[in-house]
Every structure is written in C-alpha cells, then in structure tokens.
C-alpha cells in the first residue's frame, strides 16, 4: 500500500512539473487569413520575445497561464493567455484585429452647373437663363442609363457593380498591407538606429511598448525625418512625444507625479 501511494505521488508530481516547466511552441499570426510579418510577441511572464517571419510563423518559450503580448505597428495590440490546449498541441493560431482610425465628417455636395441660378442671391423677376433658353445643342439629349449587369453567353447575368466592388476591396486590402509593411520597415529602422537602450533609459519607455510609441509618434513625420537623415530633429520629436506617452516606466511615472505635486 505504501509503495502504491509513493508511486501515485511520483506520477502526480511529474504531471504537475511537466505542466509548469516551460516548453517551446510554434504559432502563426494573421489578418483576415493573410499571414503578417514582423509581428512582435512578448511573453510577459518569462520576459522573452520573438518576431514573426514572412509566413507569419514564430516560436516562443511558454508555460500554462503565461500572457503573450502581440503587437504590430499598424494593428491593434492583443493579449493571449496560454491554455492547456496550447501546451498539449504545442501550437497557437492568433488573428489580429485591424486598427480603426476615426475620420472627421465630410459633406459632399452636388456640383453646380455654369447656368444654375442661386435662388438666395438672384432677384425673383429675372429672366431664366439655362442651356435650353439659350438654344444650346444637345439640350434635349437624355443621359444614357448605366447598365449594372453583364449577360454572359451561358445566360448567367453578372452584377458588374458588385463584381467591381469585390475586386476593389481586395486591391485596397493588398495596397493597405503593402503600405503597412513599408511603414513598419521604416519604423523598425528607426528603432534599430537609436537602439532599445535609448528608448528605455533616455525616453523612459517600457521595452514592450517601443513599437507602440513609434506608431504613436508617426503623425509627427518621424519617417520622413529619418529618410532625410535629420536625426537630431527626429530625436527631439521623440523626446517631446515621450513626455505625453502613457506607457512610461514605473520609475519615470513616479518622478513625473512627484513633480506635479510639488508645483
């Protein structure tokens, strides 16, 4: 009986130890089924990180319950908790949501013709002047109606407008991904040029938020300054932006708060 209990205790201990011991798992990051390159994955629990390749694949050391921070310069940040299923399959598939930008309202008005009369500024008794009263040619010609369907020889009617919209949607998505990749490469060059030590020790930005900080600073034209080799002006802008960036190190947060209280 004692031998049986000892064996059971050993098996239980091994089982618990195997669950808590970190292992290497593989994964893939994608956007709308399209693999995404240069996505940063950081294990906040073990403080290790990696980056996806051109196929969106990555490998990282994890254990059950670890929190993965997944970030890309032009996509929403996402966190994933490692589950028992992830540990068993040694695989993880993660879809990142697209970043949403809120634009100001735009009002589009109908373009006025050269003979259109503005009723608000013209007197009521003035003669009407338009293409018809001036006897201009083609005034009676009606605009041809647009055909929105195509008749195929097989007899199937295809909605042209819907087909074009579908093609345009795919083209827009490809152009967006291409633009995001170019911007991502430029921001990574900026990070490599200044090094992580500059962002962590000089700007007091947490290491896992450096990419997010660069994306936050992008509207200030940092990519253009880097391409023009205006490094001193670029460093000044990064320093100014770091003062208002929310993800500072805990030490710097305390310093800023103390300064405000003294004032």
Automatic annotation (TrEMBL):
UniProt source species: Tenacibaculum adriaticum
Pfam (any one): CarbopepD_reg_2
InterPro entries given in the database record: CarboxyPept-like_regulatory
MF terms (GO), sorted A to Z: carboxypeptidase activity
Descriptive protein name: Carboxypeptidase-like protein
Protein keywords: Carboxypeptidase, Hydrolase, Protease
